[in-house]
Structure formats: structure tokens, C-alpha cells
Sequence to fold (242 residues):
Amino acid sequence: MKRITDFFEKITFEGETFQEEMMYSPEATAAFAKHANERDLYAHGISMSGSPLAYDWKSVRKFNEETLISYADFSTFLTGLQSRNINGIYKYHYPSAGGLYPIDIFIYVKENRIENIKQGLYQYHPLQNTLQLVSTEKIPVTLHYYGNRHIFSSSAFSVYLFYVPSASYPKYGGMGMFYGILDSGILLEFMGKSARKKGIGSCIIGNLDFQKFNYNFSQEKERLYLCGMEMGLPLQENDNAE
Ligand SMILES: Cc1cc2nc3c(=O)[nH]c(=O)nc-3n(C[C@H](O)[C@H](O)[C@H](O)COP(=O)(O)O)c2cc1C
Fold:
């Protein structure tokens, strides 16, 4: 299976150096986040005011491991991802370049966390609005970078998004992957916001290493892992800690 890092790790920008050590230093990361956010600190222009139209986004990284997510809430959340054939055109509740929807969605459900859904890796089928069990094997925590392991350990379920070249490359060539990445970002935000309406919190996980999981995602068609999300009932109402 190809990895997204195979494409993007090669990218360079003149004058920029990748500082890998930041991965292991929370202090250096915090300092850099300040630097990045303040890049236009002294800019000025016409003042804008008003109340934000969207509610605040907030990642959740600690989940309630005692309370089951009801089947009704989980099912309602997934139904938001379904595709409906309207006059011969497949319609979703979120956009995708060219209406191709080349992102396959996998859901890993932990044991005793969702009412009526057994532990396992499932593929979500938007046309049928069904979850198909594809593996009962446990996903190891070591798939995740060290700093993300506690998030995976307490989440109720994980969502994994894969780009499917055969559903996009013939129309867009290499740019299809770029659009697929944009599609997955839109989908992540859509999922995070709709889950929140059912009290389910989420944290996007930028990267992990699927080589460490013994399941071949590309067995029936090529798939490229893009991004994921850990989800569950928030442990604390105001959890916002990294
Ligand atoms: C593409 C992307 C990748 C992310 N990867 C991670 C991650 O690996 N681990 C993590 O804890 N948070 C991750 N996040 C969440 C961000 O850290 C978080 O959105 C940001 O700090 C702002 O905080 P907020 O979401 O609570 O507003 C990611 C977010 C995005 C959009």
C-alpha cells in the first residue's frame, strides 16, 4: 500500500528547514505554534465585528469509557454520510470535487462502547447506509505516534479515510489526490460538527502507520490512507488539553 508520506515528505521550500525534533518537544511545538499564529501580528486593515456565525470548534482527546454510545445516536451520525440517488445523481450532505466522492470510510469500533455494535473494523457503505464488518482483529495502539496514543486508547471508535485513485485519477490525474485530500478535510469537519449534535466529541489525527496493522486495505482496490478521527463521548465538558 502506498503511503501519503511517500508523496509529501519529498516536498521542500527554499529557505525552510523541517525541524523534526519538534515532534518530541512540547515546548518547541508551543513556541512554533505561537510563531505561526503571529505571522501577521502587525498587519492592519478595515475593522470587522459581529458574533461568529459558526459555533466554536473544540477537539476532544479524553473520552468517557463507561457510558455506551446509543445505537440510535451512532446510527444517526453515520446516516449523515449516506448517499442518495436523486434523479440518477448521487447526492451527499457534503461536497466533493466533481461529485466523485473518492473517499472510502472505515470505522473501528472498540469493545463495549457502542450499543449493539461489536468490536471490529467496518467499512461504511454510503449507498446502502450500512456498516460491513471487514476484520475482527484489534488495532494496536502502536499504530499511533506516541503523543496520540492516549487519545486512541480512550476513544469509543475511530474513523479512517482512504483516497481511492480508481474513483478519481481517470478524471483528474494527479490533482485527483489533491482534491481527495480537500474532500477528506471537508468530510472530517462535517463529521466532527454533526457528531457534536449527538454529544459525540472528536479529535482529528493527522497521521498514523497502517503498516503496523495486519489488514490489507488495498486488497480489492488501491487505497491510500489520508487522515483519521478519534471519537467518543467527551469525558469532561471543557476538555481541550493536548
Ligand atoms: C489535519 C489535522 C491533523 C491533526 N492531527 C492531530 C493529531 O495528530 N493529534 C492531536 O492531538 N490533534 C490533532 N489535530 C487537532 C489540532 O491539534 C486542533 O484542531 C488544534 O490544536 C486546535 O484545537 P481545537 O480543535 O480544540 O480548536 C489535528 C487537526 C487537523 C486539522
The two ends are 30 Å apart (CA to CA).
